[in-house]
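Section 3.1: Structural characterization of target chains.
Under the original work plan, the team committed to producing a structural model for every single-chain target entering the pipeline before any wet-lab resources were allocated. The record below documents one such target. The sequence was received from the expression subgroup and is listed exactly as submitted; it comprises 151 residues.
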Amino acid sequence: MSGDKMIALNRKALHDYEILERVEAGLVLTGTEIKSIRSGRVEIREAYVRPLGNELWLINAHIPPYPAGGIYNHEPTRPRKLLLHRDQMANLAAEAAQRGLTIVALKLYIRNHVAKVELGLAKGKKLHDKRRAIIDRDRDREARRALQRRV
């Protein structure tokens, strides 16, 4: 992903969910939304995707109003349409509905002057799974430190 400008990363989703599949999607935005995104003030911690009709919509992504937007500003948490191929939308929606999975926003970034969002088909982790992930991460960190000390 060289040349991408990372705007927001949903670290909470990586902790709370096991990501089974990742998909890149475009966003339908207004002029003040893209200006606000470029200034880097976006929050996607609570963002998820919901299928409505034959389309997928990003819900709860908070893009604050652009300070110089005036009367043309947007609503910060309005639903935003996602741009995907028809078969990708159908597969994601069907898989999420069948297997009881959630589609969450993982990253928001700008690639080639276009805002993109990385979606993840996710399965919720249980509390003991979260604890196990923390323990494993700590063990790996300690092992790396021990190797660095030996060299």
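The first helix runs from residue 11 to 16.
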